[in-house]
Amino acid sequence: MSSVSESMNRRMTLGLLAGQYGFDLDPVSATEVTVTSVADDVESVRPGALFVPSEDVDARQLEQVQARGAYGAIVPHALRGQVDDIHIPLIYAEPTMQQLGKLVAEMAGNPSDSLAVFAITGKNKETVESAVSNLADFLHMLGNPVGVISSSDSQSLERFLALEYPLSIIDVQRTMAVCAEDGAAAVILALDEDTLRENALQSVNIDVLACDDNSLSNAEVTKFVSRFGCFVGKQTRIAGRTQESDLLATQASSAYVDTDSRLLSLSIAMVLAAGVRKANIKSALRVSRDLN
């Protein structure tokens, strides 16, 4: 289901949308029409939705979304004059991926702004999945309610999320909004092609980014994740295993008999990069060891 609706935090008028992004609204009298969700495929359209097709669109599809209750649609200028039988407002535009990401994030309430966002990438899908799972367990041990977005197992806290992969821009924003609404403090993203489509992370603010390959430079990691629309800015910390994290992981090995110490080390390095004090990590590892 590619729609932002379950956890909508904001409504938007078509006039505001067109004005903010420089799009052409037809008719201009539709400025006060308010959309309450965004969908990128016909089946996901609900009453009040703005239809933003992810592929080429034609009059037949517009008739379908109109019948399903859409309040508007974004269509290319090439369709002007060819859709006279469509009576919902149309916004003529060719939005960039950056514009689409910003629009969807705004409709979803910019969920990544209220979450600590961790992302893990790498060349080995299985290793990435294991690293995501290990980090989720580690953050939970530190007392943080966590959401996970991964093709192997997406969850919002303890709730399993049935998603269709790979995820689009809309899917990612919707899922993060669900996690935020459920009370998650952090969300962990698996950055791989099974989980995400190209540009799926537009307007997602990532706090800590890590790669399972410690041999890659920060520039190489940044380039590696760029296909997902992942912007690595000044606020993003790129983490990797260090001697310090390796030592802490080794010291805790008795509590993690079935866990690869390298994965635990990567989790520790990411949490340190997020600003968690080493003393708190040591204390949590000690408690976990005592319980085991």
UniProtKB/TrEMBL annotation:
Lineage top rank: taxon: Bacteria
Xref: SUPFAM superfamilies: MurE/MurF N-terminal domain
Gene3D superfamilies to which the protein is assigned, alphabetical: MurE/MurF, N-terminal domain
GO terms of molecular function: ligase activity
UniProt keyword annotations, A-Z: Cell cycle, Cell division, Ligase
GO biological process, one term: cell division
InterPro entries for the chain: MurE/MurF_N
The UniProt record lists the keyword Plastid: no
Annotated protein name in UniProt: Putative UDP-N-acetylmuramoylalanyl-D-glutamate--2, 6-diaminopimelate ligase
